Amino acid sequence: MPIFYPDILHQKSPPRTFSYGDKDVMLYAIGVGMGADPLDERELAFVYERGLKVVPTAATVLAAGARSAAVPQAPAEHRVSQLNYLMVVHGEQKVELHRPLPVSGAFTAETRTIGAYDKGKDKGAVVVSETVWLSEAGEKVATLTGSTFARGDGGFGGPSDGAPQPHQTPTRGPDASLDITTRPDQALLYRLNGDRNPLHSDPESARRSGFPRPILHGLCTYGITCRAILQGVTAYDAEAIASHEARFSAPVFPGDTVTVDLWRDGKIISFVARVKARDATVIKNGKTVLR
User: The pTM is what?
Assistant: First the structure.
């Protein structure tokens, strides 16, 4: 089904409720590699229920149980768009926390389309969605904004310009660089957070998609960059992070060592992630805002 414009801007999911607990919080932290050294008490705080802390980017997976209900809907006078998901890749992700994430709780989430940009019939489309979490008291907890590059859905007649511009990384050398090694089985562990796309687990599916072996989830790499901010900037103070955003640019293979370059300018932390062994930049235009 094609994109119908401007109808797609009226699409949203019905409000849906979800809850999570300490097990989900700990599983996410382990999924992005925290706790690899069980004697490192700084990271143990994210994977052990005593004094448990929440990795801010866990917001990208903690509502996984509600995703199946997120069927796009539109008022009767508008046509419903549906992307060709066989041709879709994750473009950008942002998590904005209006308050630190609790260790457990029940929430309501609603997702809506806030932008659709036509790059041409042979070039695809960029679709931007926004998900807002509300607490049981109706207070805003988190806003998740993500862009999808729909390679098979260009040519729908929408605007080609106007998409949010990516954050610009400073031109000076990084203020710090951290090497974070991923495990060979990292994708098999991370997928237990909810994303069971066989691209990340099944060698044959990966080959059909053009990869020599399963790749790491982009959102896992995104979480690893947040882990780097916790380690290199905030001294593992999760509540210091107000937002974290990045653009995906290349895959990571489980077992790769990811180098995260950091620049600090006041409360703005810029970052880029690379796999030096393959001369690949895997995350670009990264930006973290501190409280």
Answer: 0.93
